Amino acid sequence: MKDCIFCKIVAGEMPSTKLFENDHVLAFLDIYPGAQGHSLVIPKKHYVNLIDVPEKELQEVIKIVKKIGVAQVNGLGAHGFNVHQSNNKEAGQVVFHLHFHVLPRKENDGLGFRWNPQKANPEELKITQEKIIKALK
Ligand code: 5GP
Ligand code: ZN
Known about the structure:
Layout: H1 5-11, E1 18-21, E2 25-29, E3 39-43, H2 55-76, E4 80-84, E5 100-105, H3 122-136
Antiparallel strand pairs: 1-2, 2-3, 3-5, 4-5
Bound molecules: guanosine-5'-monophosphate and zinc ion (ZN).
Zinc ion is lined by residues 1, 4, 6-7, 46, 97.
C-alpha cells in the first residue's frame, strides 16, 4: 500500500533490522524500542489491524509472535515477554499496518502498561456481557 511505512519495509524500499521472514510474515526490531530487543511482527500483506485481517493470515502472524518471544527468552536472557497490539487511533495505533509488539521483560525492568483497574459493578458486568455476546452472534 502506498505511503505505508511497513509496506515499504516489506518491499525493501526502507531499511529495517530484520529478525525473521517467510512468505507471509516479517519480524524486525522496533526503531524506538521500549526495551532492548523490542520487536515488531507484521503480515507482509497490508491489513490495517485485527478488524480487517483474515483469520488464516492472522494465524501465520501469531505463530511468529510466539517464535520471536521465545527467541527473546532464549537469546537475550529475558525472563518473559509481553505482546501488545493496538486497533485504531483511539487505542493508540500509530502505524496503520497490523503489527504485534513483542517486548522482552526482565525482573524489575520498570516497564508497565497503564490502566486504572477498578472493582466492577455486577450490574454493569451483566449489561456489558449481554452487549458483547449479542455482537458475537
Ligand atoms: P503503534 O503505536 O502503531 O502500535 O506502534 C508503531 C511502532 O512502529 C512504534 O513502536 C514505532 O517505534 C515503530 N516504528 C515506526 N516507524 C518505524 C520504522 O520506520 N521502522 C521501525 N523499525 N519501526 C518503526
Ligand atoms: Zn502496509
